[in-house]
Structure formats: structure tokens, C-alpha cells
Amino acid sequence: MLLDKLKRFVITLLVVFFTTQVFAATTDLAIRFLDKANEAFEEDNIEDAYKYVNQALAVAKDEDSQANVLIFAQTVYKVKLQKIQQKYDDMALIDIKMNLEKYPNVESTSIKKLVKQIEQDQANKEKAAQKAETAAQRKAEQERFEAQQESMEAQSKAIKEQAEAMKEQAQANKESAAAIKEQAEAQKQNNKEMKEAFENLGTSFSENAKEQKRSTRVIAFSIIGIAILIVFIVILIMIIVRKAAKASQIQQEQYVQAFKMLAANQNQTNRLMLGGITDLYSGNPSLRIAGSSTWAPAAALPDVTFSEEDEEELKQLAVKCEEIGQQIDNVTGRKNNSKNVSELVYKLSVQLGLPQGMAMLNFCAAMIYDAGFLAIDPDLLLATQLTEEEKQAMKEHVNLAEKHLEFVPKKYWSVFEDAAMKHHENIDGTGYPHGLKGDEIPQIARLIRVAESYVSLSSKRSYRGAMDKESALEALKQQPGIYDTEVVAALDKIV
Description:
The chain has helices at residues 2-42, 46-59, 63-86, 90-102, 109-204, 209-273, 308-332, 337-351, 356-367, 378-381, 388-395, 413-421, 443-457, 469-477, 485-494. The protein is mainly α.
């Protein structure tokens, strides 16, 4: 019994001893971390001071060491927040906020105020940037609207001038008809006077029956001749009036037809701006135009007008391409990129002399040329810095588009495939994935290569600002080994 009590006493002493040693060691470790933090702070190495003071906070146990660490930690936290305020670092701010939750005693009124001020400043910057971007978009839309208004005003002026010319012609025809009518009235009056004269002449020679009979016969023949002449003149006048009326009607019909053509042209322009399609190519299993060094229309296939069923199919294809293009822009964070590139590819196709159908097919293919990005990790797409391995993974998007093109009719497949797989090939063979060069690169891929680079250079990105149009175009001209010089020359004419 005595032995058991002795054992318990010894064990208690050992526990007290070891607890004291551990507590002393912990207190000593907190002091050492605090000393290192102080040295780093004096050397203006705020990052190390911040790291060591957090370690000191983690091991400080007794009230004295905790008080010393808290006082110094508040100073270090305040200086680090001031540096973040001067040069914003969102990860550093998040780290401080997490440590403040972990060590709530460190948070003072001034530290709270600094954190809120930094968050408010950043929110203001983001709001200002968003406002500037919105203003730029509104300005671009306004310029486009004004250009459309000028075009419509010019067309309206031309129609008005043509209407005035037709009105003047109609007035001249009316005056000519009035002159003919006056002439007929005058002739009628002359005939009446002649008739009266002949009747008076017959009365004067009434005594001589034979002479009267002859005179009467002469008068009758004269009257018949005059009547025939009058009828001939009336018929002639009617023919002239009818021809004038017919000519006026034809001119009116021509005016109406011209107005309808102008309205149809305006409607076609609106449909193109909305992504509408009216005619493409059909009846050919392959629309690829590769191995050609010319952009003349003769190098392309003939334009073909589609049936109503084909047109409806193409409208649905364009709508589907627009939906997928929006998805691509969402995952890549490039606002309106698909729309801007496809519109520019259409304009370049027209400028280079390609038929309307091929230009519209290129428009659809350019809307989803980056469909392979839908198979890439979204976090990788939005990263600002990539390792070499990640860069290679990004390049794989040209080989991952196939499953996103299954909705495309087989007769158009080759154009969409060339657009998706070969838009990173360079004229000098330094591109990827196949290292094609010159005329080995299909025309749609060369068009997208130029359009995509120009849109990218002239658009704002998270890692750089936007170039002006002249600077972006000059940058493309200085790299003839990468871009098709004919396409760049066409771009110079339309921007």
C-alpha cells in the first residue's frame, strides 16, 4: 500500500517536471520566432516578418509572450496591409483575412479600417474598368449605327432624286398630251368653219340645179374626206396618248422595282449583320480550297442558290454555331471573340473575291473554330501564367474539336475541320499541329489566323491593354512568315 502511494507521488512529480519543461520550451520558441520577426522587420523584409510573427502567434502560450507577440503582430499586419494597398495582391489579402480569423486578438480598429479600404479601392477599380468597357462598347455600337444611318440616307436620297426625275418626265408627257389636244380642237374648229363655208356656197348656186348637184357632191366628198382626216387625227392622238401613258406606267414600274431592290438589299444587309444565311454550296462532298495560291473567284467553287429546305437547314446551322460560339467565349473569358472573328472572316472573304456562299460558310466555321477549348480544363483557360506542360496541353485544343462538330452536315465537314484544326499553322511552317506551310494551309485557316490575331491584338485582355487598329495591323504586316500577306493586305482595306 505504501509502495503504491510512493509510485503515484513519483509519477506526479515527473508529470509536473515534463509539463514545466514543455511550457518553457514553447515560451522560448515563441520568443525566438518573435526575435526573427523583429530582425526581418528592421531589414524591411515584411514578408519574412509576417511569416515569423504568425509562427510566434501559433506557439505563444503564456500571457506575457502572447501580449508581446500581439503588439508586434499588429504592427507587422498594418505595414503589410499598407503595402497591399499600394500594390494590390488578392492572394496576400485573403491570407491576412484568414489569419485574422485564426488570431482574432490581432485585429485592431486600424487594421479593420485598412482591410475595408483595400477592398473598397479594389471594388472601385473594378467598377471603373467595367464602366470604361461599357462606354467603349456603346461608342462602337453608336458608330456602327451612325454608319448605317448614313448609308440609308444616301440610298433614300438616290431614290428621291430618281422619283423627281420621273415626276419631271411625267409632267413633260402631260404637257405634250395637252398640246396635241389643243391642236385637235383647233382642227375641229377649222373643219366646222369649212363646212359652214361649203353650205353657204351651195346656197349661192341654188338656181343652177346641175351645178348645185355637182357642188353638193363635192361638198359631200369634201366632208367625207375631212371626216376621215379627223378620224385619222383622233386615232393618231389616241395612239400617242396611249404610248405616253404606257411609257409613264413602265417608268413607274421601274421605280417601284428599283425601290424593292433597294429594300431587298437593305434587308439582306440586316440579315448578314444578324448572322443570317441565304445561299451556300451544295452537291460537292468537299469544300476545302487548299493548295491554291490565288484568292480570285475562279479558284473557288461556283455559287449555288439553295432550295427553301436547304436555306432553313443553313439558318439552323448558323443558330447552332452562334450558341456554341457563345459557350466558347464564356469558358475562355474572351467576350464576343467568336462573333468578332467570324464577322471579320466574312468581310475578308468578300474583299478577297470569294463567292457569297463560300463567304457565308466561312462565317459559320469561324464562329466555332476554337470548339476544342470546350474540352480543356476551364481553370487552365483562365490562368494568367502557364508552365511548358500546361502550354502543350492548351495546344491540344486543335485536336479536341471533333465531338463538338457532330451537328455539322457532312457536306460542310471539311471546311469546319480545317477551321478547327489548322488555324494555328504558319505560312513558314513554324505553326502547329502539322507544321504546314504556304499553300498547304487551307484558305479558311489562313483567314482565321489573321482575323483571330487582329481581334486579339485590338481587344483588351487581363494581362495587357488593347492596341489601336493601326498598331495591330502593323504588327501583322511585320510577320509575313506567320500570316498570309494577301489576307493582311485585304484587312488593311476594310479596317
